[in-house]
Amino acid sequence: AKDAGRGRVEVYDDDLRQTLAAQAALEDGLRRALAEDELVLHYQPVTDLRTGLVGSVEALVRWQKPGEGLVPPGVFIPVAENSDLICDLGRWALRTSLAQLAQFDASGGPGAGLRVAVNVSGRHLRSPRLVDDVRCALEASGTAPDRLALEITETVMVEDDAAWARLEELRAIGVQIAIDDFGTGYTSFGQLARVPVDVLKIDRSFVDSEDPRTVELVRLVVGAARSFGLRVVAEGVEQVSQVRALQAVGCDTVQGYYFSRPVAADRLPAAVTGCHEV
Ligand code: C2E
Ligand code: CA
Ligand code: CA
Ligand code: CA
């Protein structure tokens, strides 16, 4: 029994070692990917249902791994979040998306004048460098701060006073703040009145549900957001029935495969034009 017990511990150690080795390899690969320009941003349109116009896009990172095609962020973001690598990635995403925005402006095409939303991880938000990173990226691109929104998951912002202060500092510069995946974390209805944010992104799981109580909940959230002066974006809209349901509860801004998948920068002008049918 003693031997068996020790055996189990060794198996466990082996598993753990393998997991850690795999993570370390992924981390090394990602560090190299950043240095060698293997990361790309795709952009997903956010459509205003009242006008049919695309006012902004969300920047979503992909890893163009040589010989392997596009690796989705779900595979490498969680690993990047274990170290300051996620801050390097965040800095890169801010610089790249804002530089892209300036290029869209200069082109004068359908991408001109768009705003961009960039995902910021909790670790970067807790880092004292975030505000400088944002400032530098804005300066380098020459874009106005109100063209940029930072998407932050709600869990992070309620638990950390320094992070909260940082959000207020960013808003003072003129940058917009969005709560991402709203409804999956811990922001209470009461906190909605106080959080330093401009936009609330309703998580896909709510858009997906046909349960009448969930629909009612979305109606309440949209109403509360409006009275607190927040804008609302519904995420993960895939079907016209969802568009109609969201319109019925007063949610006017939507994002999802129904309108467009995230696309590479060169395909964005066409995607923006194609979103007009609502
Ligand atoms: P997220 O911020 O919630 O992004 C929305 C995700 O939903 C994206 O997945 C998008 O492709 C997907 N999506 C959009 N419309 C639909 C739809 O109609 N149906 C379905 N089923 N999915 C839809 P993606 O690009 O794989 O990104 C996954 C997550 O990775 C993001 O979730 C975000 O948390 C993280 N992420 C992506 N890019 C970055 C980044 O640059 N920095 C950081 N820190 N995180 C990022
Ligand atoms: Ca997001
Ligand atoms: Ca989201
Ligand atoms: Ca998410």
UniProtKB/TrEMBL annotation:
<protein>
    <submittedName>
        <fullName>Bifunctional diguanylate cyclase/phosphodiesterase</fullName>
    </submittedName>
</protein>
<feature type="domain" description="EAL">
    <location>
        <begin position="23"/>
        <end position="276"/>
    </location>
</feature>
